[in-house]
Task: inverse folding
C-alpha cells in the first residue's frame, strides 16, 4: 500500500492521537505543570516505540528530551526530525471559547493550546514515519527524532545539549515543523530565523512598599523607572536606541528581497487581522521586512505593585519588566545583551537600582533556497499542495534550528504547516485540519525524495 | 472612678478586643473578603450596642457603614468620631514575619494588617467612650460614630453618603483618628490633607495577543504605549506635565512654612528609613513640602502581558496602568481628571487606543490651627504626651475628612496615633502599643475639654 493511502485511511486515528497528546497540559513555563511535561515525554516515547523505533528519554536539568531513531537504511541519508511537546500558558483563560486542553473541532479547525504550536506539527512527522513503516516496512532514509520540552522557554539547555551530542544527533538534513504558511493558501519554506535575547529587568527603589499618599512625590518609584527605561529604548522613529544595535545587521540579498516583493503582502489584510489602523515599528521599512529582516525590541509584561481590582495606593519597592530583542544575522546575542545592559543602566533614573537577568539567548540563522534539501522540500510541497512554496523568513526564533545549522552543520528545512491566523501563544489557538493531513503527505514525499539521493558517505 | 483609671485597668481587655477585630480579614479591595467586611461591621455594631449606644448598620452599594450614637448631653456639643474597619490587601504574603491576620505582639508593637490603619485607632475612640460611660455613666458631649468599610477604596460611595445624610451626621466637631505622629516622640495635628484622583488607564493594541517573534517590530504594543505615557507624564525635573496642573496650587502660608522649618526634618533619617540615597521628586522643593503641599503623580501597577515566571514571547492585546494624582488645595479633582485624560490622549502613540477610568476622587482640605477644637486637641495631647503637637499636613487623602469639612461644615480634628514607620499598606504593618493606651487617654481628655465649652445652640 502506498504510505499516502495508509495515512488517508488512518486520518481519524491520527487525529485522536493528536488529541490525546494535546490533553496533556505540558506548559513548560509554570512549575505546577512539570508532572505533565514528563507525562507528555513518556507518551511520545511510547508512541515512537510502538513504531519499533529505538526510543528513550534523555534527562536534562530541565524537561526531558525524547530521542528516537530508525537506522535501517545504511548508506542512505539521515534525517533529523524536530518538534517540541511543551506549550505556552493558556492564560487569559476566560477568552477561550472551548477549554484550552480539551481539543475541540469546529469547522475545519482543531482548537486547543498546542494544536499548531507544536503538537500538531510534531505529530505530522510521527504519522508520516508510521505511514512508511506500516506499509513499506521500512523508510527510504534513516530517521532520528529529537523532541524537546523547553522550546517555549527559549530552549535554554537544549541548545547546550546539541553541540555536546553531535554523534548521537548527526544527520544530513534536519526537518523542523514548527512554523506556518505565508498566507492561508500559500505554503512557504523558511530561509531565515530571528535570534532572541530575552531578559528580565528588575528595578528596586525603597527597601519596602510605601503608601503613595505619605511618600508620593519624595520617593523612588520602580514602576515609573521601568516606564522611563522602556520608553527610552526606542526613539520616535521606532529605532532601538542601544548603541551600535544595527551595526551587524546584514541586509537581505537582492534575490531574497525580490522574492518578497513578489509575495504581494497585503497591508490591509494584515491590519484587518490585527484590527489596527497602523502597524507601528521602525520607520523606513515595510511590514514584512520589519518582521523578517529587522531586529526589534518588545515588552512582554511588567510585574510589581498592585494589579488586583480597585485602587491600592502603593509605591512598590521593586518591579520587573520582561523585555526581549529579536535579532537578525549577523547580530550576536551576547554582544547585544552587553550593550542592552549598559543602555538600561544609563536609562535608570536616580534613586532606583536596576539589574538585568537573561532568560533566553538564541542565534539568528539563515538557510539558502539553493540547498538540495530545500529543493526537495519545495518539490514535495508543490506536489501535495499544487503550488510551489514561497521563500520567507521567520520573525520568531527556533533556537534548535540555529544549533542544527551551526553545530551539526546540517541544513535545516523549516517546513511549517500552521496558518498565520493560528493565534499561537494566544487564546483560541487552532490548527487547520486539512493541513494536518496534507502535512503528513508532504513529509512522506519529502522522505521519499531524500531517499532517492545518491548514497551517502 | 476617673475614666483614665478605668482605661488603665482595662488595658489588656482593650488589646484583646482590638485583636479580635484585626482577626477579621476585612480587605475591601478583593471580592473574596466581602463576607469578612460584613462580619467586621457586625462586630462593631455589637461592640457599640454593648456600650448602650444606639447603633445600626447602614447598607450602601458597597460595604456597610456602622453608625452609632449617644445623645444624652442635650445642649452640649456633638462630636462625630470617624474610623474605618476595612484594610489593605496583605500581599506580598511571604514578606510578613507573622501572619497578617494573626495579631502578634513583639516588643512594644502589635503586628498585623490594620493594626495602625485603622483598626487600632478606631478602637482608641471606642475604648475612650467606654471609659466615660462605664465610670461617669455619661459623656460630657454627644457622640456619633461613623465607621466605614471602603476607605481603602478611596471612600467612593461614602463621600456621596455624607452630603445626603447631613441631619444624621450633624456635629460640631469631627474627630478622625487615621494618621500618625510626625516622628516617634513627636505628636502632631493635621492642618491639611491631599486630595486624590485615582485612575486606570487602559491601552488597547491588536484585537488579540500576538506572538512577538512573528509580529514583533510591526505591531502596536500596549505595554510600551503605557510606558511612553507614564514617562511623558513627568518631565526631567520631576514636574507633572499636565497643562496648568500647578495653576491652582495654594502655597503654604508663611506661618505654616515657619512651623515646618522648626520641625528640623531629618533627610538622612528619611533616606535610612527608605534605604535610598536620594528621594526623587519635583526639583526645588524640600521632602516635606513635596509630600504635604505639592501635588504628585504615581504609578501603582501595570496589568497585562505575561507576568509569570520564565519567558513568554507575547505582545498583549491590552494593558492597564493604575495611575494616581495627589492634589493639594485649591486643585479640583474633576478639573485635574479632565486635563489628565486629555494629556493621556496626547501621549498615546499611533496604533494604540487608550481610555481613562476613574476609581476614586477626593478633595484636598485644610483646617486652621486656630480653630477652638484644634486648640483643645492640642491641649489634650500635651497633657498626655508631655509635649505640644506639631502642626503638619498629611500627604495621604482622607476623603471623609474633606467631606466633614466641606459638607457638614464641622472642623475636622485629625489626631493620628500611628508612627511614621508603621508600614501602612506594606508587609509587617504594626501599631505602637504605648500609643494605643495614650491615645485612649487623649481622646478621653479631648472629650472632657469639648464638654467644658459653652453650651451649643
Result:
Amino acid at each position: 500500500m502506498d504510505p499516502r493511502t495508509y495515512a488517508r485511511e488512518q486520518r481519524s486515528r491520527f487525529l485522536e492521537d493528536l488529541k490525546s497528546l494535546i490533553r496533556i497540559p505540558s506548559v513548560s513555563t509554570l512549575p505546577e505543570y512539570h508532572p505533565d511535561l514528563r507525562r507528555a515525554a513518556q507518551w511520545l516515547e511510547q508512541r515512537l516505540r510502538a513504531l519499533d523505533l529505538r526510543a528513550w528519554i534523555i534527562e536534562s536539568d530541565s524537561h526531558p528530551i525524547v530521542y528516537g531513531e530508525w537506522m535501517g537504511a545504511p548508506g542512505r541519508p539521515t534525517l533529523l526530525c524536530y518538534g517540541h511537546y511543551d506549550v505556552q500558558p493558556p492564560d487569559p483563560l476566560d477568552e477561550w471559547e472551548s477549554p484550552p486542553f480539551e481539543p475541540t473541532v469546529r469547522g475545519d479547525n482543531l482548537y486547543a493550546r498546542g494544536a499548531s504550536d507544536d503538537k500538531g506539527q510534531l505529530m505530522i512527522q510521527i504519522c508520516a514515519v508510521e505511514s512508511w513503516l506500516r506499509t513499506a516496512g521500512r523508510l527510504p532514509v534513516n530517521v532520528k527524532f529529537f523532541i524537546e520540552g523547553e522550546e517555549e522557554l527559549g530552549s535554554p539547555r537544549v541548545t547546550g545539549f546539541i553541540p555536546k551530542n553531535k554523534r548521537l544527533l548527526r544527520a544530513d538534513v534536519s526537518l523542523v515543523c514548527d512554523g506556518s504558511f505565508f498566507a492561508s493558501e500559500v505554503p512557504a519554506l523558511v530561509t531565515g530565523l530571528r535570534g532572541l535575547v530575552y531578559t528580565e529587568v528588575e528595578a528596586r527603589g525603597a527597601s519596602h512598599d510605601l503608601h503613595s499618599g505619605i511618600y508620593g512625590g519624595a520617593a523612588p518609584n520602580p514602576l515609573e523607572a521601568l516606564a522611563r527605561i522602556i520608553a527610552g529604548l526606542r526613539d520616535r522613529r521606532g529605532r532601538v536606541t542601544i548603541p551600535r544595535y544595527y551595526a551587524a545587521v546584514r541586509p537581505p540579498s537582492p534575490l531574497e528581497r525580490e522574492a518578497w516583493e513578489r509575495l504581494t503582502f497585503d497591508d490591509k489584510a494584515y491590519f484587518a487581522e490585527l484590527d489596527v489602523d497602523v502597524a507601528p515599528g521602525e520607520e523606513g521599512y515595510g511590514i514584512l521586512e520589519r518582521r523578517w529582516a529587522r531586529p526589534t525590541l518588545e515588552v512582554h509584561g511588567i510585574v510589581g505593585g498592585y494589579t488586583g481590582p480597585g485602587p491600592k495606593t502603593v509605591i512598590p519597592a521593586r518591579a520587573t519588566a520582561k523585555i526581549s530583542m529579536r535579532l537578525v544575522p549577523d547580530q550576536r546575542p551576547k554582544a547585544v545583551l552587553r550593550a542592552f545592559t549598559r543602555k538600561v543602566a544609563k536609562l535608570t533614573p536616580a534613586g532606583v537600582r536596576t539589574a538585568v537577568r537573561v532568560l533566553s539567548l538564541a542565534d539568528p540563522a539563515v538557510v539558502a533556497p539553493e540547498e538540495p534539501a530545500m529543493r526537495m522540500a519545495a518539490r514535495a510541497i508543490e506536489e501535495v499542495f499544487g503550488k510551489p512554496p514561497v521563500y520567507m523568513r521567520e520573525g520568531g526564533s527556533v533556537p534548535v534550528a540555529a544549533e542544527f545549522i551551526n553545530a551539526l552543520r546540517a541544513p535545516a528545512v523549516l517546513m511549517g504547516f500552521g496558518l498565520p491566523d493560528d493565534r499561537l501563544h494566544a487564546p483560541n489557538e487552532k490548527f487547520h485540519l486539512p493541513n494536518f493531513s496534507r502535512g503528513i503527505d508532504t513529509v512522506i514525499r519529502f522522505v521519499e525524495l531524500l531517499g532517492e539521493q545518491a548514497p551517502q558517505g
